[in-house]
Design a protein that fits this description.
This protein is an alpha/beta fold and 326 residues long. It has two domains: 5-179 and 219-243, NAD(P)-binding Rossmann-like Domain (Rossmann fold), CATH 3.40.50.720; 186-217 and 249-281 and 303-325, UDP-galactose 4-epimerase, domain 1, CATH 3.90.25.10. Helix content is 41%, strand content 15%. The strands form four sheets. The chain has a seven-stranded parallel sheet with strand order 3-2-1-4-5-6-11, with helices on both faces. The protein starts with a strand and ends with a helix. The mean pLDDT is 97. The structure holds NADP nicotinamide-adenine-dinucleotide phosphate (NAP) and ligand G4F.
Length: 326
C-alpha cells in the first residue's frame, strides 16, 4: 500500500508532537502546519526535524489553508491547532473564537473544496460539558460550556458534525478530557505544579501560588490520547468519541502527589492566590469512555499517580541539568 500523508495543524503543541511520533512510527509521511513567528518555537518537535515536513499556514487565513491542502494532498487531517488555555479565553474572547471556533470552519471548508476525500479529526474538549449536566459525561451528555474557550469548542464540534452530515465528509470529533505530559505548557495546572515542585526541591523557589484546589479533573497521559485520535480515523464510519480515564482527582490530590514525590509537604509551600480563580469554574469532570473502549479498542495505559510522577521526575531532571550548566 502506498504511504499515507497526514497533515497536523498545531504540530508545535503538546499533542502535535506525540501524534507526529505515533504517525511516523506507523510509516506515515507527516506534514505539520505551523504559523509564522519571529522566533522558532520547535522545542517539542526538535527531535523530529528532518522527519516531518513543515508548511506555514494559519487558522486565521483561509487561503493559506487552501494552499497547504493543495500542496500536501493529505489522506488524514488532524486539527489540533487552537488557543487552548482557558483563562486566556476570557482575556481574548474574540481571538479565541477566531482560532478555536471559526478556524474549524475555515479548515473544513478548505477540505470540502480541495480534497473532500480526506479524513478529518477535530480536537474537541471536555470543557464543552462545563457545568456538567450528567456524571460521568459521555457522548450523550448535553453541553454547558463555562468559558469562551468552551463555547468556541462547542461551535467547532457542531461544525464538524454538520459538515459530516451536510457534505458526507469523513469528519469526526474527539471529545478529549484533560491530558498531560512533560511536554505540557507551563501555564496548565499539572505542569505548573510539577515545574513548581521541581523548583522548590532544587532551591530555585520557595512557594507555589495556586487557584482553586477543589476543582476535579479526569487527567490522562497525552501519549495515550493521540492513539485514540488515530484510531478514530481508521474506522469504517465517522463517529464522535469521548476519550477519558474514567477517574477524577482534585487539584489538591495532584499537588499532594507531586510534592510527595520529592519528599515535601505541599501545605508548607502552596499559597492560594485569588489571581488564579476563574470568572466561572468547571468544578467536576469525569468521562465515560465505554464507547471508545468497545468500538476503538482504546484503553488508557498511564495511571494518574504514574503521570504526575513522570512529570515531576522530568521537571527535576530538566531543571537540574539547567542549574548544573550555569
Ligand atoms: P497546545 O499545546 O496549546 O498547542 C496548540 C497548537 O495550536 C500550537 O501548535 C499552536 O502553535 C497552534 N496554534 C494556535 N493558534 C494557531 C493558529 N492561529 N494557526 C495555526 N496554529 C495555531 O495544545 P494541546 O494541549 O496540544 O491540545 C491540542 C488540541 O486539543 C487543542 O485544540 C486543544 O484545545 C485541544 N484539547 C486539548 C486537551 C488537553 O488536555 N491537552 C483536551 C481537550 C482538547 P504555536 O506553537 O505557534 O503557539
Ligand atoms: O490545567 P488547566 O488550566 O486546564 P483546564 O482549564 O481544565 O483546560 C484544559 O483541559 C481542557 C479539557 O477539559 C482542554 F480543552 C483545554 O485546552 C486545557 O488543555 O486547569 C485545570 C483546573 C481548573 O479547574 C483550574 O481552576 O485547575 C484549576 N487550577 C487551580 N489552580 C489552576 C490553578 N489552573 C491553572 N492553569 N493554574 C493554577 O494556578
Amino acid at each position: 500500500m502506498s504511504q499515507k500523508t497526514a497533515l497536523i495543524t498545531g504540530i508545535t503543541g503538546q499533542d502535535g508532537s506525540y501524534l507526529s511520533e505515533l504517525l511516523l512510527s506507523k510509516g506515515y509521511h507527516v506534514v505539520g502546519m505551523l504559523r509564522r513567528s519571529s522566533s522558532e518555537n520547535f522545542e517539542r518537535i526538535e527531535h523530529l526535524r528532518g522527519k516531518v515536513q513543515l508548511e506555514y499556514g494559519d487558522l486565521l487565513d483561509q487561503s493559506s489553508l487552501v494552499s497547504v491542502l493543495q500542496k500536501v494532498q493529505p489522506q488524514e487531517v488532524y486539527n489540533l491547532a487552537a488557543q487552548s488555555f482557558v483563562p486566556t479565553s476570557w482575556q481574548q474572547p474574540v481571538l479565541t473564537s477566531e482560532f478555536t471556533a471559526v478556524g474549524v470552519t475555515r479548515i473544513l471548508e478548505a477540505i470540502r473544496q480541495v480534497n473532500p476525500g480526506a479524513r478529518f479529526y477535530q480536537a474537541s474538549s471536555s470543557e464543552m460539558f462545563g457545568k456538567v449536566l450528567e456524571v460521568p459525561q459521555s457522548e450523550q451528555t448535553p453541553f454547558y460550556p463555562r468559558s469562551p474557550y468552551g463555547v468556541a469548542k462547542c461551535y467547532g464540534h457542531y461544525m464538524t458534525v454538520n459538515y459530516r452530515e451536510s457534505y458526507n465528509l469523513f469528519a469526526v470529533s474527539g471529545i478529549l478530557f484533560n491530558h498531560e505530559s512533560p511536554r505540557r505548557g507551563l501555564e496548565f495546572v499539572t505542569r505548573k505544579v510539577t515545574d513548581g515542585v521541581a523548583r522548590i526541591k532544587l532551591g530555585l523557589a520557595k512557594e507555589l501560588r495556586m487557584g482553586n484546589l477543589q476543582a476535579k479533573r479526569d487527567w490522562g497521559f497525552a501519549g495515550d490520547y493521540v492513539k485514540a485520535m488515530w484510531l478514530m480515523l481508521q474506522q469504517d464510519t465517522p463517529d464522535d468519541f469521548v476519550i477519558a480515564t474514567g477517574e477524577t482527582h482534585s487539584v489538591e490530590e495532584l499537588v499532594d502527589i507531586a510534592f510527595a514525590r520529592v519528599g515535601l509537604d505541599w501545605r508548607k509551600h502552596v499559597v492560594t492566590d485569588p489571581a488564579f480563580i476563574r470568572p466561572a469554574e468547571v468544578d467536576l469532570l469525569i468521562g465515560d469512555c465505554s464507547k471508545a473502549k468497545n468500538v476503538l479498542g482504546w484503553v488508557p495505559e498511564v495511571s494518574f499517580q504514574g503521570l504526575v510522577e513522570m512529570m515531576v521526575d522530568a521537571d527535576v531532571e530538566r531543571l537540574s541539568k539547567r542549574s548544573s550548566a550555569l
